[in-house]
Amino acid sequence: MTVVIESVSALRAQVQAWRADGLKVALVPTMGALHEGHISLTRAALDRADRCVASIFVNPRQFAPTEDLDKYPRQLAFDLDKLEQAGVHAAFTPGVDEVYPEGFATTISVGGPSAGLETDFRPTHFDGVATVVAKLLIQAAPDLAVFGEKDYQQLCVVKKLCRDLNLPVEIFGAPTVRDPEGLAMSSRNAYLSPAELEVARKLNKILRKAATALEGGADEAATMTAARQEILDAGFDTVDYVEARQTDTLAPWRRDTSGRVLVAARLGKTRLIDNVEVTAR
Ligand code: PAF
């Protein structure tokens, strides 16, 4: 039975009670619209902890005024049902006023891995993410929190936030869940038409080809230029970025250390992101 918790005080009381019983508690922060990718995060949490809390909160502070906050899918009853089936012990579903009471005036801004990539196109996004994630981690005080590698820059920003603020929580990055053709699961896939879905499915193959080329010694700039052109040729309208970076720090890529190729590309009204690993030579 998934207990639904709406207030910070009730969340604290529940987690403290579990911890007093010697149970390890994991938090899976989400914005709802749950799909197989989110459920894999709860599975990773339940593999590593005795109790799992999933939060469902569409965080207004990580959307720019021009972005899709109002049309972001909201389906609480469906989400709670999925969490119940997944064996999640509690769902934290606060209202906006519970998270940002009147007069709220604090923003957390993480440097390092938030530079470039998403920030070049969504300049305030990670301030919104870092602020809400810091609040959730302080409110729930879990032993462990699970984030998806799909949002790889977000994962690096959250790890840096926890290190820099000495938050006593382990962050686990769970692998991306993909459909059989490699498309990363995302709430935004719901916006794609059948024809766009076919195009979207080509993105991961192009990234993997670029990663393999880098691993084989190909020139970085030429590989990224070729990947950008292949994404456009596949049918995407624009490519915000396709770049190789180092793992974790997201510093400029170096061949002798492990890295990632990260992409954001637009297809119709939908913006998709993805990333793949590049192993060191
Ligand atoms: O990845 C998301 O769904 C969100 O950015 C998060 C981590 C739940 C913060 O609102």
Topology:
Blueprint: E1 3-5, H1 8-20, E2 25-30, H2 36-48, E3 51-56, H3 76-86, E4 90-92, H4 96-99, H5 118-121, H6 125-140, E5 144-148, H7 152-164, E6 170-174, H8 194-200, H9 203-215, H10 220-234, E7 238-246, E8 259-267, E9 270-278
Parallel strand pairs: 1-4, 2-3, 2-5, 3-4, 5-6
Antiparallel strand pairs: 7-8, 8-9
Helix pairs in contact: 6-7, 9-10
The chain binds pantoate (PAF).
Kindly summarize this structure in a few lines.
By secondary structure, this protein is of the alpha/beta class. The protein has helices spanning about 10-20, 35-50, 75-85, 95-100, 120, 125-140, 150-165, 195-200, 205-215, 220-235; strands spanning about 5, 25-30, 50-55, 90, 145-150, 170-175, 240-245, 260-265, 270-280.
Write structural notes for this entry.
This protein is an alpha/beta fold. The chain has two domains: 172 residues, HUPs (Rossmann fold, 3-Layer(aba) Sandwich), CATH 3.40.50; 90 residues, Pantoate--beta-alanine Ligase, Chain: A,domain 2 (2-Layer Sandwich), CATH 3.30.1300.10. Helices cover 39% and strands 20% of the residues. The protein is built from ten helices and nine strands. A six-stranded parallel beta sheet has the order 1-4-3-2-5-6, with helices on both faces. Strands 7-8-9 form a three-stranded antiparallel beta sheet. Helix 6 crosses helix 7 and helix 9 runs antiparallel to helix 10. The mean pLDDT is 97.
What brief labels describe this structure?
single chain; 281 residues; alpha/beta; Rossmann fold; Pantoate--beta-alanine Ligase, Chain: A,domain 2; 2 domains; six-stranded parallel beta sheet; three-stranded antiparallel beta sheet; 39% helix; binds pantoate
